[in-house]
Amino acid sequence: MMKRLVNELWIGALLVGVVGSVAAQSTIVYRCPNNEYTSQITAQEAKTRGCRTIEGAPITIVAPPKPRPVAGGAPPSAVARASDAKVDAGEQRSRDSDARKILESELKGEEAKLAEMQKEFNNGEPERQGGERNYQKYLDRVEEMRAAIARKQSDVAALKRELAKLPASKE
To answer: pTM of the predicted model, to two decimals?
Structure first.
C-alpha cells in the first residue's frame, strides 16, 4: 500500500515536471535580427536565422487607444459627417447635371477612341508594319489590339451604366 502511494506520488511529480517544462518551452521567445520577436519557430530555425533566446521574458500586449468621447456625450456614430448632411434639392440637381455633363464628355471621347481603334483594327486584318516581317509579331499585335478594343468597349459600357444611374436632365 505504501509502495503504491509512493509510486503514485512519483508519477504525479514527474507529470508536474513534464507539464512545467512544456509550459516553460511554450514561452520561449526568440529575438531575431531585424527586431522580430517570435515564439512560432523551432530552436533549429532560430539558430539558422541567427535569433537569440529570451527565456521567461514577460510578454507585453499593447492595447489600441480607446476613441475619445465626443463633446455632448453623443456616440461617434451619431456625429453627422459633412457627406451625410442633407443637400438642397436645387444644389443636388446642379451636381447631377454637372456629373452628367462630365460623364457624357468622357463617353464621347471614349467612343471616339474606340471608333479609331476599330478602324485601325480593320476587322482583324490591320496593315502590317515595317518591323513585322515575322508573322508571329503581327499576330501578337493583332491580339493586343483585340484585347485593347475589348477593354475600351468595357469602359464605354461602364460609362453608359453610370449615365443610366443619374436622373434624366431637364434641360
So the answer is: 0.48
